[in-house]
Write a structure and sequence with these properties.
It comes from Brassica oleracea. This protein is an alpha+beta fold. It has 8 helices and 15 strands. It starts with 12 loop residues before the first helix and ends with a helix.
């Protein structure tokens, strides 16, 4: 549309899939187009559909362009640029398009927004409160809200980008589980991520196995354990055939991997830094969150399990520990230590 060259021209379907889905390659946006249009196009190709502009956002932008004179147009977008920089440091990694999808209103129950790549709240300045005032135009997504928090006399003045609306104790980005899964829904994972919830409690959730968002009421859901990038996970002991193919180590053992991406439907992309590259069938695997469990040092029982988990961080840890064990055994004059380190 902009250059006259069809994107990924001459590529096969498999090659396009590998570039777009696996490598997450994005189109090169020409530099000569106006900055607002460039930002819009970049947003349209975000991997997570929640971070893309809606049709309302697109129409609003083009109307602003149409109604703005040239000088006012550039000054307006210079202001947007500076506002985005300020917001990006405060909104914990969310795009402007993500934040614009849910405008706060007086009377909303809100809480501090957790980081985009985390399932835990790092900053709970507002554990729960009610919006009692808004210091902005109702059509402007940038501004401050006055939040009344229980136990605090005066309302807190908080930037809207660090707040999220909670309805029926649910908010966008929460991990949830279906209370009841029908016989015909076995293809669907019972654990997913909330995409939106309106003020009446109607929820849209992304589940593995469904081609579209699941829609229902909050009463059909319950909170579930969340996962985030950087956590280590392994296949549960009672899972013998995972939904997605998972690599195996020696003796048919499922290796522990580290989450590299959390997809919008709750699917986990897992890498295996503790497995030798030459032995990897795939650089990464997918995982259903209901089939895996988190692994960290607090869940490891005994020294042996802790050392084994240490090896999950990088494949070079194992030979390094073996070399240290051999060196220690030779220095101390005992072979039992060496056999122990070689075994682990």
């Amino acid at each position: 549309m902009l250059t006259g060259v069809q994107p990924w021209s001459g590529k096969s379907i498999d090659e396009i899939y590998n570039l777009v889905v696996i490598k997450r390659e994005k189109l090169t946006i020409p530099n000569a187009i106006p900055p607002p249009l460039e930002k819009l196009l970049q947003g349209c190709f975000m991997y997570d559909l929640r971070s893309r502009p809606s049709m309302t956002d697109i129409l609003h932008l083009f109307k602003r362009l149409q109604n703005s004179e040239e000088e006012a147009f550039w000054s307006f977008w210079r202001g947007v640029d500076s506002r985005e920089i300020r917001k990006s440091s405060a909104n914990l990694g969310y795009t402007e398009w993500f934040l614009s999808k849910d405008q706060l209103q007086v009377g909303d129950t809100v809480r501090s927004r957790k980081p985009a790549n985390s399932c835990k709240h790092e900053n709970m300045d507002v554990p729960e409160g009610k919006v009692v005032g808004l210091e902005r135009d109702t059509t402007d997504s940038d501004g401050f809200a006055l939040v009344k928090v229980h136990g605090v006399h005066d309302p807190l003045r908080v930037h809207v980008s660090v707040l999220e609306r909670a309805t029926k104790d649910l908010a966008s980005g929460d991990w949830v589980r279906l209370k009841h899964v029908g016989v015909g829904d076995k293809r669907c994972s019972p654990v997913g991520i909330v995409h939106s919830i309106n003020r009446e409690g109607i929820v849209a959730v992304g589940f593995i196995g469904l081609p579209t968002l699941w829609r229902g009421t909050s009463s059909q859901l319950q909170m579930a354990e969340g996962y985030s990038v950087g956590q280590f996970v392994k296949i549960k002991a009672n899972v013998f055939t995972p939904r997605f193919k998972w690599i195996r180590k020696g003796r048919g053992v499922w290796p522990t991997g580290r989450i590299s991406h959390v997809l919008p439907n709750g699917c986990l992309e897992v890498e295996f830094p503790g497995v030798l590259p030459s032995r990897q069938e795939h650089k990464s695997c997918l995982a259903d969150p209901v089939e895996v469990e988190i692994v960290d040092f607090s869940t490891c029982e005994g020294v042996v399990e802790k050392i084994q988990h240490l090896q999950d961080f990088h494949w070079a840890v194992s030979p390094l520990l073996a070399a240290m064990g051999l060196l220690a055994s030779l220095k101390l004059g005992g072979l039992d230590h060496a056999r122990f380190y070689i075994w682990i």
